[in-house]
Design goal:
2 domains; four-stranded mixed beta sheet; homodimer; Creatine Amidinohydrolase, Chain A, domain 1
Chain lengths: 398, 398
Amino acid sequence: MSIIKEKVKQAKQILKEFDVDCWITFVRESQLNGDPILPFLAPADVTWHSAFIVTKDGQTKAIVGLYDQKTIEETGAYDEVIGFVEGFREPLKNYLQQLNPQKIALNYSVDSEICDGITHGMFLTLFHLLKELGMEQRIISAEQIVSALRQRKTKTEINHIKKAIEITETIFERVTHFIKPGKTEKLVAQFMKDQAKTFGVELAWEPLVCPAVFTGPETAGAHYAPIDRKIEPGHVLNMDFGVRYEGYCSDMQRTFYILEPGQQEAPAEVKKGFATIVQAIEESARAMRPGVLGKEIDAIARSIVVEAGYDEFPHGLGHQVGRFSHDGTALLGPPWEKYAKKPFYPLEEGMVFTIEPRLTVEGRGVVTIEEMVIVTKNGAQFLSHPQKELILISANER
Amino acid sequence: MSIIKEKVKQAKQILKEFDVDCWITFVRESQLNGDPILPFLAPADVTWHSAFIVTKDGQTKAIVGLYDQKTIEETGAYDEVIGFVEGFREPLKNYLQQLNPQKIALNYSVDSEICDGITHGMFLTLFHLLKELGMEQRIISAEQIVSALRQRKTKTEINHIKKAIEITETIFERVTHFIKPGKTEKLVAQFMKDQAKTFGVELAWEPLVCPAVFTGPETAGAHYAPIDRKIEPGHVLNMDFGVRYEGYCSDMQRTFYILEPGQQEAPAEVKKGFATIVQAIEESARAMRPGVLGKEIDAIARSIVVEAGYDEFPHGLGHQVGRFSHDGTALLGPPWEKYAKKPFYPLEEGMVFTIEPRLTVEGRGVVTIEEMVIVTKNGAQFLSHPQKELILISANER
């Protein structure tokens, strides 16, 4: 089954579960200003005012411009696709009048950007149309519907994510033979990008910082691009990288140590930092199961890092992954203002999360691992093969 | 001067002209759900709630997440860039309180998708913040500001568009030697795409239909992708193609005729169709000047086509071009419902338009030319080199 068919089918069940009569995704010129949920409902951008409607009793209908009709029909996900020439107003009004829904969910949200797809102008357009029908008071936010739909991954979605992870792990394996003292962050980043090209996959986020590569003690914040800084013996090097396979992302970090001449292993302080991160990941993953709140998981890893004597990491422990490397609403994060309600949601079966604690080893660099897990009814299952050992790079320049 | 500096400077003048105290572009996670105006204000996507503010008295301020601060500062376009850690609310409230604007323009529009950048969730966020300040009644649509800013092209923007056109014309020149009877639409399309790659430019729109290639009498509607249909002698072939250079687009169409064995020129009915299109373009371009309404220009070309005995084209005569191949609000279009108010705007100096009438020659194919012009105070100036002759392709298979 295509992803669109899978997701539209899932949407019907979600509407039933939340007892919402009708969910409308309403977009126009989606190339300019799309809705992040649109790829689950349509295989390509749409031009004219377009409404994708799912109802609690299982009806699915799309009202789109004539030129887009065929493309939407071919998904097989809709009972009916109306292709209009004159305008969307009459077919949409007729359908809603006949349906007479008591709750009409639209894609807006103050707290969750991923659920905030409708523009204000499009909201006004729909609001006035519903007012003509006396239904404008029935509008509610579709936040919980969109969140559930994005985060409950279907089989096809999980398979795509697994494939993205497999490619990422292979590229991390290959770069291990490329990293050498004297090479720059930029060179290492270029190697990763070139590898992605040979696999025919896109990068999972903004190419400027995909991968992010940080070597040595003077590494900048997490959002900066690789620079001409050279790799040196004694450095901890870490990398954040992901690819997009068939629309689905991986997002992983690995930590390397560059041996000094004569060294056989990393110094004690680096090993301690690394072991702390491994333990934080293991213990937080062990606690993950449906019903537990994201902030509870974050707190486990955070306290392991702090109790080991490090500063707490200045970000959440993990985020969901899907069509974007940062996807979904629920977050493994601390209850900080900027995360709004995201850390307060319970985990659900089918959510895919990163786990990515971080700490700084003074004089060496940043130790950070990012694994990917899926929440099952029995707990978290690793989708990535967890890094359990520092990757040691020999000191030889060649 | 960088485009961002040019455009922010231009925005100050536009606010003065329209007597609007303050214009706020308000976005978050712009990779997911950006505002089409953002590339004029910031060089890269932003992560946290970010406000870009221009005032009538010439102040420019950005309030962004800490990690984005440096990138925005480096544009040199803002008097001050505040990088917040905790949240945007306090710095934004403080600044607005001090400014006390009477009119606050936000990027929403029922009629113009290109001016409809703020999501409904972000609108609510700002609405509630302004309510706390007693200013929520001062919100107005920024449609006229955003329209003016997009459509009044600066020198740098015009140069980028000219370069995109130059590359497009070179590729059209080259494909003339590639088109041959027996080749398919798909093959011709691939040649165009490969050429764009050799120039290191992106395609101006959705690759599936860039270029659009139509050969012969049974050509489908304008939005369909090239197929395996073979070019045959006696066919009229047309192509719609554009590239994006430094963020700015071209959008052009050219018409070819495939000679039959022994033919030295196109048959009379094809020549007549072509001459009609050329005349429609010349006469509508001649009438373009600041102050004339878009629908008046559309009517000129439309009546030339109809009076020559052809069906009227089922679309507007021309649209603006900029960062998107379809850009801007004002349109050279007929007063049809689906175009809303767009055909009713007066032309302004600095607008870049396509002119693209179309007609069908029965049994031969579709004749269509798309030129690009800029509106100057003295009238329209062609940016492209207008096609004045059918491009004749020899009948030899090789």
